[in-house]
Amino acid sequence: MNAASRPPAGRGFVFSLRFVSVFAAAHILLVLLQTNFLPLSDDWNVVWLSLELLLAAGALGISAVCLAYARVRGTQSLDSFSALFRDIMTPGTVFLALWVLWAYISCFLAIREGRASFYHNVRFLFYQTADMLVLFPLGLYLGRKSRTSLLKAVYDGALALFTIQLLWGFLRFFGGKAAFSAFFGRR
Amino acid sequence: MGGYAAFFLVAGIWRFRSAGSRVGRALLIAAFAVNFAAFVSVESRAAVLGVTAALGTGAGAAFWRRGRLSPLPRAVCSAVCCAVAAAVFLGVFYGSRTAVLRVQNRVLGRIYTAAAEKAPEAVEGSGSPDRPGNGSTSYIAPAPGVSGDRERRDLVGGGASTLGGRSKIWRCVIEGAARDRHILLHGTSMANVGDWVETTAFKRNFHTHNQLLEVLVAQGLPALVLFLLWLVWLAGKSFSLAFSPSPGAEWALPLPLLSLITHNMAEMMLVGRTHFVGGFFFLIAGYTAGLTAERRSEL
């Protein structure tokens, strides 16, 4: 679809998505830097930062994939969001969503019974959900795009995965014994 | 990651072969080699298992599809390839530990001998063995920071008969979970799995060495059921895409999933720590969902 035939109202939508994705990416970077280089006052600080990371990752994942869908489908409006939603609503992703939901419920049940600490478990959950919110939509987009150029989609996926892992690995490596290790490191 | 590398290799070769680009093929093989080396170096033997199983089955599928081994029937070719893959699989599993320890003995033994010649008192102080291994001895060099007998036993593990101690852990974990209704209902939470396993299985471990058991212990039986349903859906969709009438390069899609599932029988990728393999799993799950949606929209 060329630029002239695009609905004018869609440009604002695309601009909003771009703004959200850039803002969310910057927020993730700031959170990572903050946990890496600044002293954390208490456990709640870490939990709060992990929640920030989760929200920012969700915003980045959804907005970036909506943008990508809009580009692939040639639409510049909310159609891309509804297409994304239709793609996501498969039995498999419903099972995945229910699994994640149960992970939170079971975590809070264990905390209520005194079997687990809020601080240690919630940050794990937030971090893992954030990881999922970035990588699952990315894979979804690559799968949707692959009919036109499979190899490029595979390369894009490899590049994205390596970049993400490189960034986390870089920060983890240079974070040393700082709070970042406690935040993201292995037990 | 290994599965992704396998998919990367197979899909890429399939693509480039039709284009006739040798450079592209060489680049893909090099990329696969780098991925494989990185994966194996950061992961454990389970990574090797996953990659081997995926590649063996992929080769079997390729022979089956292309009929390269005719005059033999395709079913026989597939069975032979799967048997070879299984043999390699088991060989790697049982043999790698011995091989690793042999190399470890040889390298550390030489280092130890050199250190003993330079500063014998320092070596004596750290508990030097009577026989500084030369590759043929049974001496297991202690890892840095490990000096006690218990820790050394833990490093050595339970031997090949127990899959490196895994079967003991699995049995203890299943028995322990069956006794505790709280574990069956909601688990002990992610961060506490290590402590629970240590208490139940009497072995220093941070996890259960099995993804399904890890989900069971961390989040309970409902989570395990949902996780299994998700895995079954993923596997079913990837195979249906692979064996569709005009699959394109999607026929290689089950390879990464097979690799990951194999890996997860001996290790784990999710719950408690998400790292390279877990990230790849989310990516390939989304990829399968996207391909399914694409096919659905084409119909």
Condensed summary:
Chain A is mainly α and 187 residues long. In chain A, 81% of the residues lie in helices and 0% in strands. Chain B has a domain at 157-299.
| Inertia-based shape of chain B | globular
Beta strands of chain B, count: 0
End-to-end separation of chain A: 51 Å
Q: How are helices and strands ordered from N to C of chain A? A: HHHHHHH
- Helical content of chain A stands at over 70%
Shape of chain A: flat
Helix share, percent of chain B: over 70%
Give the helices and strands, then pairings.
The complex is a heterodimer of chains A (187) and B (299).
Chain A: H1 9-37, H2 43-73, H3 79-88, H4 91-112, H5 118-145, H6 150-175, H7 179-184
Chain B: H1 2-19, H2 22-42, H3 45-66, H4 74-118, H5 120-125, H6 149-156, H7 166-179, H8 181-186, H9 193-201, H10 211-219, H11 221-242, H12 254-266, H13 276-298
Helix pairs in contact in B: 1-2, 1-3, 1-12, 3-4, 3-12, 10-11, 11-13
Attribute tags:
A: 187 residues; mainly alpha; disordered C terminus; B: 299 residues; 72% helix
Description of the structure:
The complex is a heterodimer of chains A (187) and B (299). With 187 residues, chain A is mainly α. Chain A has one domain. Chain A contains seven helices and no strands. The relative contact order of chain A is 0.13. The model of chain A is unreliable at 172-187 (pLDDT under 50). Chain B has a domain at 157-299. Chain B has helices spanning 2-19, 22-42, 45-66, 74-118, 120-125, 149-156, 166-179, 181-186, 193-201, 211-219, 221-242, 254-266, 276-298. With 299 residues, chain B is mainly alpha-helical. The model of chain B is unreliable at 15-20 and 122-157 (pLDDT under 50). Chains A and B meet through α3, α4, α5 and α6 of A and α1, α8, α11 and α13 of B.
